[in-house]
């Protein structure tokens, strides 16, 4: 097993887990969104890493170039980035509304009695 | 990047968090360039470092910027994260090494894109070929997601009347000083800013158009162009005041743009269907398949650009507290 | 000519109509569009189901790019059945929505409601029909984003936090799913489900694929609210507008279960899951735990929407239990419960929608004596409740019968016993409502309450009626479910 060959992925995993940790451990709603973003960006880096071919260039056809990096993960990640930003916009929209309704953006401060006749 | 990530965990001042996240995103973009993903890098820089950061800042302006007491559930969370991370590392053990040209992903499916896209689609940028044609349907879904987000933000925040957004809070301060004057941004009196931005505006718009139509050959395309186009208007709004910017593109036009771009994309697909191909087959749109592909890709990229620009402007205005 | 393009039209027509709704802006017009599209989609789904039942799976390569290079739409019996479930619920819920939305959502935002509904429909149908794992993610996100917005439109401010929590957990789930897809892609080089199925066995015993399966499982479990990843569900269902609850409860989790079936029985169809992964027994344990915890918590709820939400968690447990048997009978039981549960839950939530319209509350105390004041609504509720318990002559009985059979086939007596036992818990919570509604007098001096309007009652009763009809005559549904299960398992006993 080539440890050096996998090192890149391990760094990415560390990043992913930092993002994931922010999401589940923090009570601040904006920070959670930032955490989600870090998590997602790291997953994107993971995809892009796998598309790299040693000695390859950007996948734009040109004369005299034989080896291109794999374009498919690029396409997938373009889509995923867009999905990510859309999610972020919606999440932040919700945060603003929550702040309007409750006056706080800390998850711990908006816990209400669950039992009532809503 | 790891250092920034760790700092993000600790930092409680949310403004710094937002800025750091922007830097994190730019670093990721740089990493993509190193790994040959120029299109992705372009988008990440525009979206992650640009839009997301601006949105986070806007949200903070509307809420609070300080995170409260440190979390109490840290240990449990840490345990979950460690298990997940360990699982991932365990999973990597059988992966092909980084950059190995013999890895399965470089052997199956992709060779056709690289070898035949020039003949089948006639566009040098393989990413554009795959994005717009081979997997054009994913892109249609992606535009739909953008559409959903913009319409969703409208539904969420569209009716917050009597609230002050970031752009307008700049104006309000101005109003307090001089009554009776037309509300203007605090940035407005600065003549240099005004002149420079007037000079820049056409250039930015031109650049947006270049990116829009050059996506076939170099990195770029409808999505990135839409983002740049949208940013131009946001710049305009920041300097000349949201009020003036709103008059340049009224609400009805913004909404129409949002819907029309998606409709254009979806209807190009239907056109392919009516002309005897399957849904989203562009080859049948013109006499020669590659011409058809060109035409189809140009049209759908234009649709993407329209929807994305409209969505950006709508989201910005809504967050600045003014759109309905 | 149209017939050949049905798979594309199934998704594209709702997709095109969503921006139309946004441009129309008038609630009435938007509602008309949504209604017309829902009925059209149902017609398409039914004709696809018939086509598939006769002629076998249909494949539709989008853009004429053959899979695995392009994205392929693939309809088989399971997919077609799910399409029918989703569109049928949409078609029945839409007439109901007219009055209910006008009552619960401000009129200048109603057009956005219909836009979101159509997007959600698009997303759900897209998931059910696609043959590409990444395309599934894109449509999953379309349906998720729109459902977050739909939930946040609830009147109570807690709808906002419910939507936010759902968003965070949903996005984590989707990201896990993407990681899983990435790992599979890494080892096989393809994203097409059929292609994956043929290429996976060669690499099935690698650690990467094992983890890919684990991440796909966790990601989708978050979406389908499998115990203990269900925490977003109760609040989301409780505070969402009534129509949204009825629609999502009957469709969203079902589609997630479907995606689960796809991953396990199509993508990993050629791999013997029992050999490579301890996943299957874990799923079974979680499913059983969900059945009991969900039902037990439901007993103590005073908010009826919340009670039904917990009951949903229990019902999802039954579905996953069916899958985890990995036998034709078990899978058929799971699939048929998918269909049956959609019927009964939508009947129950629609009935509660009627109650909200007239009483403005779904608190259990508010329902005193309601059996006499809104007899038709409450009767529909009771029918749905009986079905939840699994009383003979209702659809609930059919699915439980099948699940028990599947357990007995394998000789797992204790599990069969547990299925019956958990049904007893359902008796308790349904009985609580019945007792209050029928055996307590109406509170003194309460205002007169009339029955809900006909176009709300009719959809409620269509669903209630269907859950009796398909309970008495289950041959058609059973045939489809068995066919689907056999197709998925391919010759296994």
List the helices and strands of chain A in order: HHH
Q: Helix proportion of residues of chain B, in percent?
A: over 70%
Measured between the Cα atoms of the first and last residue of chain B, the distance is 39 Å
| SSE string of chain B, helices as H and strands as E | HHHHHHHHHHHHHH
Number of distinct beta strands of chain B: 0
Number of helices of chain A: 3
Q: What's the CATH architecture name of chain A?
A: Orthogonal Bundle
CATH structural fold name of chain A: Helix Hairpins
Helix content of chain A: 55-70%
Ranges of chain B with pLDDT <50 over ≥5 residues? 161-186
Rg of chain B, rounded, reads 23 Å
Describe what you observe in this structure.
Chain A has one domain (about 5-55, about 70-110): Helix Hairpins (Orthogonal Bundle), CATH 1.10.287.3510. Chain A has about 120 residues and is mainly α. Chain A has 3 helices and no strands. In chain A, helix 1 (about 5-25) packs antiparallel against helix 2 (about 30-50) and helix 2 runs antiparallel to helix 3. Chain B is mainly alpha-helical. Chain B folds into 2 domains: about 1-65, no CATH class; about 125-325, no CATH class. Chain B is built from 14 helices and no strands. Chain C has a domain at about 280-493. Chain C has a two-stranded antiparallel sheet with strand order 1-2. Chain C has about 500 residues and is an all-alpha fold. Chain C has 20 helices and 2 strands. Classes of the chains: A mainly alpha (about 120), B mainly alpha (about 325), C mainly alpha (about 500). Chains in contact: A-B, A-C, B-C. The interface between A and B is large, with 86 and 96 residues.
């Amino acid at each position: 097993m080539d440890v050096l060959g996998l090192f890149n992925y391990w760094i990415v995993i560390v990043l992913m887990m930092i993002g994931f940790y922010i999401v589940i451990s923090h009570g601040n709603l904006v920070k959670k969104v930032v955490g989600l973003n870090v998590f997602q960006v790291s997953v994107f880096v993971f995809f892009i890493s796998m598309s790299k071919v040693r000695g390859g260039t950007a996948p734009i056809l040109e004369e005299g170039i034989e080896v291109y990096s794999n374009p498919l993960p690029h396409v997938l990640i373009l889509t995923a980035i867009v999905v990510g930003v859309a999610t972020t916009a919606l999440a932040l929209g919700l945060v603003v509304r929550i702040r309007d309704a409750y006056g706080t953006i800390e998850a711990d401060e908006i816990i209400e009695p669950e039992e009532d006749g809503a | 990047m790891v250092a920034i990530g760790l700092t993000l965990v600790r930092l409680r001042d949310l403004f710094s968090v937002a800025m750091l996240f922007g830097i994190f995103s730019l670093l990721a973009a740089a990493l993509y360039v190193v790994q040959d993903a120029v299109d992705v890098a372009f988008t990440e820089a525009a979206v992650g470092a640009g839009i997301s950061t601006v949105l986070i800042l806007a949200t903070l302006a509307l809420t609070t910027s300080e995170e409260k007491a440190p979390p109490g559930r840290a240990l449990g969370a840490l345990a979950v994260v460690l298990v997940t991370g360990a699982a991932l590392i365990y999973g990597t053990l059988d992966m092909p090494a980084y950059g190995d040209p013999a890895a399965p992903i470089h052997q199956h499916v992709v060779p056709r894109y690289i070898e035949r896209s020039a003949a089948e689609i006639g566009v040098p940028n393989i990413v554009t070929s795959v994005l717009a044609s081979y997997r054009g349907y994913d892109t249609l879904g992606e535009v739909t997601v953008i559409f959903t987000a913009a319409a969703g933000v409208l539904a969420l925040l569209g009716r917050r009347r009597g609230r002050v957004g970031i752009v307008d809070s700049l104006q309000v301060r101005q109003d307090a000083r001089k009554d009776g004057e037309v509300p203007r941004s605090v940035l407005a009196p600065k003549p240099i800013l005004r002149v420079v931005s007037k000079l820049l505006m056409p250039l930015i718009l031109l650049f947006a158009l270049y990116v829009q139509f050059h996506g076939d050959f170099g990195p770029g395309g409808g999505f990135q162009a839409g983002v740049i186009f949208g940013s131009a208007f946001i710049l305009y709004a920041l300097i000349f005041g949201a009020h003036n910017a709103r008059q340049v593109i009224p609400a009805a036009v913004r909404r129409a743009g949002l819907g029309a771009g998606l409709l254009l994309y979806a209807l190009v697909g239907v056109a392919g269907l009516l002309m005897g191909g399957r849904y989203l087959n562009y080859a049948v749109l013109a006499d020669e398949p590659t011409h058809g592909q060109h035409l189809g890709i140009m049209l759908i990229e234009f649709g993407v650009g329209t929807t994305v620009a409209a969505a950006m402007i709508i989201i910005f205005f809504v967050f600045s507290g003014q759109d309905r | 000519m149209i017939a050949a393009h049905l798979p594309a039209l199934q998704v594209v027509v709702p997709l095109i109509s969503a921006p139309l709704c946004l441009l129309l802006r008038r609630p009435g017009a938007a509602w008309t569009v949504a209604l017309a599209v829902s009925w059209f989609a149902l017609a398409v789904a039914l004709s696809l189901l018939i086509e598939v039942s006769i002629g076998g799976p249909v494949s539709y390569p989008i853009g004429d790019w053959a899979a695995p290079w392009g994205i392929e739409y693939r309809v088989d019996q399971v997919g077609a059945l799910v399409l029918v479930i989703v569109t049928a619920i949409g078609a029945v819920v839409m007439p109901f929505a007219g009055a209910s939305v006008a009552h619960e959502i401000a009129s200048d935002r109603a057009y956005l409601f219909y836009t979101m509904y159509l997007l959600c429909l698009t997303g759900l149908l897209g998931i059910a029909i696609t043959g590409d794992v990444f395309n599934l993610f894109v449509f999953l996100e379309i349906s998720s984003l729109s459902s977050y917005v739909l939930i946040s439109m609830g009147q109570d401010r807690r709808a906002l936090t419910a939507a936010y929590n759902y968003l965070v957990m949903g996005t984590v789930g989707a990201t896990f799913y993407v990681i899983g897809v990435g790992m599979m892609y890494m080892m096989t080089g393809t994203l097409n489900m059929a292609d994956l199925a043929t290429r996976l066995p060669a690499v099935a015993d690698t650690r990467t694929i094992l983890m890919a399966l684990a991440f796909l499982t966790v990601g989708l479990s978050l979406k389908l609210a499998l115990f203990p990843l269900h925490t977003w569900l109760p609040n989301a269902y409780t505070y969402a507008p009534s129509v949204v609850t009825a629609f999502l409860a009957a469709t969203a989790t079902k589609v997630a279960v479907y995606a689960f079936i796809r991953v396990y029985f199509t993508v990993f169809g050629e791999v013997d899951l029992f050999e490579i992964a301890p996943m299957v027994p874990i799923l079974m344990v979680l499913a059983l735990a969900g059945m009991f915890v969900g039902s037990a918590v439901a007993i103590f709820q005073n908010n009826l929407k919340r009670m039904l939400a917990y009951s949903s968690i229990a019902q999802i447990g039954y579905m996953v239990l069916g899958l985890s048997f990995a036998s034709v009978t078990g899978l058929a039981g799971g699939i048929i419960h998918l269909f049956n549960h959609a019927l009964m839950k939508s009947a129950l939530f629609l009935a509660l929608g009627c109650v909200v319209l007239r009483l403005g509350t779904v608190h259990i105390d508010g329902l005193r004596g309601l059996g006499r004041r809104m007899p038709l609504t409450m009767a529909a509720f009771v029918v749905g409740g009986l079905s939840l318990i699994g009383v003979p002559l209702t659809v609930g009985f059919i699915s439980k019968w099948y699940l028990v059979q599947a357990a007995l086939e394998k000789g797992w007596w204790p599990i069969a016993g547990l299925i019956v036992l958990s049904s007893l818990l359902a008796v308790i919570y349904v009985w609580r409502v019945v007792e209050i509604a029928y055996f307590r007098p109406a509170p003194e001096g309460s205002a007169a309450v009339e029955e809900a309007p006909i176009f709300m009652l009719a959809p409620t009763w269509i669903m209630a009626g269907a859950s009796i009809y398909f309970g008495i005559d289950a041959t058609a549904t059973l045939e489809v479910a068995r066919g689907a299960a056999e197709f998925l398992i391919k010759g296994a006993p």
